[in-house]
Please model this.
Amino acid sequence: MLNFQDIKKEIFITLKLAYPVIIGQLGIIMMGVVDSIMLGRLGPVPLAASSLGNSLIFIILIIGIGSSIVVSPLIAILVGAKRYSECGVYFRQSLLINVVLSLIMLVIILIGVNFITYLDQPPEIISQTIIYMTIVGFSAIPLMIYQTYKQFIEGLSVMKPAMVISIAANIINAFVNWVLIFGKLGFPALGIAGAAWATFASRIFMALVIMFYVMRSYKYKQFDVTFHFRSLNFPVIKKILRLGLPGGFQNFFEVGAFSIAVVMIGWIGTDELAAHQIAINLASISFMGVLGISQAASIRVGNAMGGQNIANVRKAGFTGIGLGLSVMFFTGLTFLFLNKFLPTLYVSDKNVIAIASKLLIIAALFQLSDGTQAVGIGILRGLTDVKGPTIITFIAYWVISLPVGYLFGFTFHYGVEGVWFGLLIGLTVSAILLTLRFNYKSKHLIQF
Model:
């Protein structure tokens, strides 16, 4: 039986791991916020184009990012079991996998831009979206290298370096945006292309800095964290892919649903698409916060699994869910009370502001569901349970969310608000099913 002191201690440990990740993730998402604010000054069209471009690119990148995340709980399990000598092996094989994945994703993006015209989007948006995606696509390579080093050290419960790097990268992104979007310091005004080049530059910076830090730090020397591949370890590669790819598709099904929602909203109009970008951008800020808790809880569950302390598995998991709910409750209140003010930080167009303010009310309603499902995926990943959550996310978003969104948005003529109602339903279903699965799986482990 857990007492209050046990829970209090677990909350403290989880938050200690989570806060650098939260700040780091917020730093990354703030790049998108700054992009949107700056592009919003150019009008609804560049803002809508960046929304569509980011959605389409992220639906591809998320498979690689989701696959790379599995390294953290795997390393955490090895640490919990005190099998330190194997950590370097997992790092080197994951680096190889992630570089190959980045090249595959780049090719898919470069080919995929040729099919954007078939998405039936406003003509003025399509050309700018193609430019944006083509440039940002090349950032897949440095992004996946960064992810490899980041997930490795976070599996060792070292969270602060990624936080510092993301904050610095955010500053660089904002500065390059200012220079290239508006044509400052003698550079030409590139508009949306300037925002794309800023993203590319900031991701190269992130990869180079984290590589330099990890390779030069004495604490990681024992793991051989360079590009030197001693050999291919096919059992480890197979294990990483077996657990990582389903994790990537979990994220794909969720992010993909939101990306398809962007396409559907584009059928409605440019103002609606711009308003969606504002609302989803703000919702992403709160999501990055809970994602830090998810990552921390995943590591805590992995440590407990490695140490074969199954009671602590449940304690770590449900503590994470409780913290996620707490964070999202307050962000939901913020969206409710400031729903008319927050969009004015992005644009001055009154119609876009009015639409975005209504979407923020729906965003406030799905905060608790979004927080619960995000932590649920993390703690199940800590159990190395990936197949069940993949099925759950597919059903929640592609079988339920998108059809409901289309039904309310177009059949019942609720427009963009109807599409967002579908997203609310999908997130709620996912949250309930993932929580029930963790409860079942963790009980089964105790009985076993």
About this structure: Residues 24 and 162 are 6 Å apart (CA to CA). The mean pLDDT is 87. Residues 4-447 form one domain. The radius of gyration is 21 Å.
